Amino acid sequence: TMRGINRALMDTIAACGDVNRNVVASANPLQAHLQPEVARLAADISTHLLPATSAYHEIWLADEQVAGSAEQTSATTDYEPLYGPAYLPRKYKIAIAIPPENDVDVFAYDLGYIAILDDAQENILGYNIVIGGGMGMTHNNKATYPRLASCLGYVPKDRAVIVSEKVMLVQRDHGDRTNRKHARLKYTVDDHGMDWWREQVEARLGFSFEPARPYAFTRNGDRYGWTKSTPGLNNFTMFVQNGRVADLPGSPLKTALADVARKHTGNFRLTCNGHLIVADVKDEDVESITRLLASHRLDNLDYSALRLHSMACVALPTCALAMAESERYLPRLIDLLDEVIDQAGLRSDAI
């Protein structure tokens, strides 16, 4: 499986463990002129923070040099220029948002970037940097709790990548390595305070954060259906229950999307909410793509807002921590809840 993923020019390096696991960026089709820039920043940060060890390739790929982003970055097996000998106290996650859309839920991450735009809303000037988010907690353990990220300040965009490194290094050096329940960056923030954190990061950066700049988020969901992005280009966001692209009984979604991919000349984007955007459809192709989507019932958005905003953990049989059938049961649960919310007049409320 791992070699198959690698042959498809994807990789799973740093997908788990006490490292920077993932960097996500807005997939928002309404700001298509800015989306490529934040996607590049996400890739640059991810590459910069990848573990340098060749162990991934020795274990999974028989130590072969490969294409894609999982190329070996160090000639030695166990040299980690950023992580050091023991990696991080816990996992570390990063998100980049473009106001007014918070489709990545930027305040739920260890490190978040909030794009600050010029007056014309055409160019990204820099980013407000937020740290210490995380929604996890352990049942019946009051020492664990969810926390929204707090703001360190603003940096110009040419300094965005180096900030990711220095924030991570403060957590590497000062995070709790004795209690894994207390080891996420959010607890390090609460233990030391934001003033201390700002001083630590600035000392490593060699420059100071500017005061945070104003911005406004107006929504955090996906925009379903057709939306215009830039002149001549359109995007269709479809609902994918739990983000599961598979051929299921009565719903051959994978086969249907393969047919769309053969005829679509633009690209596809995956959203942080688990849905899929058929992106960059030319004006003259909208009618034919609409017919194609309809022929596969991929244009069906006649769902309650509750279902459109629902999401479940994968759970059984995939996750070793699972105790329930979260993903496989969720559609049936929404069926039952829909009856109640229809009676209550709440069908259009994004609960």
Task: Write a structural description.
- By secondary structure, this protein is α+β, with helices and mostly antiparallel strands.
- The protein is built from ten helices and eleven strands.
- The protein has helices at 2-7, 35-48, 55-60, 160-174, 185-192, 194-205, 253-263, 286-295, 305-308, 326-343; strands spanning 20-25, 92-97, 111-117, 124-131, 150-156, 225-228, 233-238, 247-248, 251-252, 267-270, 276-282.
- The strands form three sheets. It has a five-stranded mixed β-sheet. Strands 6-7-11-10 form a four-stranded antiparallel β-sheet, with no helix packed on it.
- A hairpin with a 4-residue loop joins strand 6 (225-228) and strand 7.
- The chain is globular and about 60 Å long.
- It starts with a helix and ends in an 8-residue tail after the last helix.
Task: Show the helix and strand layout.
Blueprint: H1 2-7, E1 20-25, H2 35-48, H3 55-60, E2 92-97, E3 111-117, E4 124-131, E5 150-156, H4 160-174, H5 185-192, H6 194-205, E6 225-228, E7 233-238, E8 247-248, E9 251-252, H7 253-263, E10 267-270, E11 276-282, H8 286-295, H9 305-308, H10 326-343
Parallel strand pairs: 1-2, 2-3
Antiparallel strand pairs: 3-4, 4-5, 6-7, 7-11, 8-9, 10-11
Helix pairs in contact: 2-4, 4-6
